[in-house]
Design goal:
With 345 residues, the chain is an alpha/beta fold. It has 13 helices and ten strands.
């Protein structure tokens, strides 16, 4: 499924439902998120793979948005400890994804997590914005030889360049860069979607957008700008107490977003300016033709005053006026007759 990202600009947008840690540490909820991601039309469902002891120090603070979601007195380590998934849980979820026909992805936060996902057999690696400057980690993931989808939130173009260099020097893997604004939620005015084109122009790889804005309009706009991947958080209920629910979409809204993305990509077309088949009926009645202004006798030399320009557009077009003037009529013609070449010597 992931190969579609790299198959050319005509391919449909690859939509990732970011389940993340919205399972709140409950494996049954994680399985439900797999089912819902499939039902709302996502191409992939993505979780997060980490061990709190390898990710943060015991006294690392939480971000403001994480504190606002609840548990203000706990450390980041305590929060993450509650949200870990075991290797067995990952295997179960990957098997569930295969059963329902959706791509299983998970974001590794260190080398051991990447090794675990490689053992499970993920199709690709999706790395988080927070690890963009962790060049040894990116090189380790690249050496797995699988496609990489790399989020670039919080970064400058120079930092993205360093990350791309680390990946490409490590292994010749296919790479997709996701523009991202790492705020939860991110204000639409900060989305800076034109960065999609900047990343594509600078690095010559497919680009996408990891969206944390409220609602669905910014994600659809990114698709309309040519994003090959859209990633968006999915939750069963935005009122749940976990850290990411408020920056997530509930199933009905996610399904609406997917529908909007599909329509936006279909609307892009191939860029060739030409009449569309659906215009044929209107074209015939909305355009105009050269017609006789009055009844005319056989042998008459046509002058401009003999002609009028009227609908429909099924006769000679007005642009042919100078080619018609000065020719003789082969037959009598009534007023309002659409001129054709067979009428003229």
């Amino acid at each position: 499924m992931v190969n579609r990202i790299f198959s050319g600009p005509g391919a449909s947008c690859f939509v990732i439902a970011e389940a993340g840690v919205n399972h709140d540490g409950d494996l049954a909820t994680a399985h439900r998120l797999v089912d819902v991601a499939k039902q709302v039309g996502a191409d992939a469902v993505k979780f997060q793979t980490f061990a709190a002891d390898r990710l943060v120090t015991r006294d690392a603070p939480k971000a403001a948005y994480q504190n606002a979601a609840g548990g203000a007195g706990e450390s980041q380590w305590e929060m993450l400890r509650r949200l870990e998934l075991s290797e067995e849980a990952h295997q179960e979820l990957a098997a569930h994804c295969r059963d329902v026909g959706i791509c299983f992805l998970s974001t590794p936060f260190d080398e051991a997590a990447a090794d675990l996902l490689d053992r499970i057999g993920v199709e690709a690696f999706k790395t988080p914005s927070g690890e963009l400057t962790n060049l040894p980690f990116l090189a380790h993931v690249a050496r797995k030889g699988k496609p990489m989808i790399v989020s670039t939130g919080m970064s400058s173009l120079g930092e993205v360049e360093d990350a791309v260099r680390a990946v490409t020097l490590a292994a010749p893997v296919r790479l997709c860069l996701l523009h991202c604004v790492s705020a939860y939620p991110a204000p639409p005015a900060a989305a800076n979607l034109r960065a999609l084109a900047s990343l594509a122009a600078c690095f010559g790889v497919p680009t996408g957008y990891s969206d944390h804005t409220p609602g669905i309009s910014v994600a659809i706009a990114a698709a309309a700008l040519g994003a090959r991947v859209i990633e968006k958080h999915l939750t069963l209920d935005r009122s749940l107490p976990g850290p990411d629910h408020q920056a997530s979409l509930e199933p009905a809204a996610f399904a609406e977003m997917v529908s909007g993305i599909r329509e936006a990509v279909d609307a892009l077309g191939d860029g060739i300016k030409r009449p569309q088949a659906v215009e044929a009926d209107v074209k015939a009645v909305a355009r105009k033709s050269l017609v006789t202004a009055t009844a005319m006798r056989q042998g008459t030399v046509v002058a401009a005053g003999h002609l009028a320009i009227r609908r429909p557009g099924t006769g000679l077009p007005p642009a042919m006026l100078d080619w018609v003037v000065g020719r003789r009529l082969r037959a009598d013609l009534p007023a309002g007759h659409l001129i054709s070449w067979s009428d003229l010597d």
